[in-house]
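Write out the 3D structure for:
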Amino acid sequence: MITLQFINHQGTYHPIQQLCRALDVVPSRYYAWRAAQAAAAAGKAGPAWETEMLAVFDFHKHRYGTRRLRVELQEIGHRVGRQALRTGLRRHERQALQPKSFVPRATDSTHGQRCAPNLLLDQPKPTKANRV
């Protein structure tokens, strides 16, 4: 951070490439830092689709993945790809919740025990309907 600020100040007197090479800084790191500083100074929070993405994602309770988000954003009017959505979600530390797969819970009829005793075995047979 301090080295990047130093490069920024000395950039008017020396070439950026030479300063980066002398201070062992990758030039792309410096330029990325400078772009982030400029964006922060301008008050730019990010692309408009990114704020819409977060609103849609939160509205649907984190259940929408990149495919559904892309369709929703296209309906709103933003053209954005799935990879950009994936990167945006990762940048904001959001991850879609995966639903649990349906597993049918059937009765285990092989346990060998009766669920309830048959109380009608000791009773006499009914003579009319609805008498048991």
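Helices lie at 2-10, 16-22, 27-42, 48-59, 66-76, 82-91.
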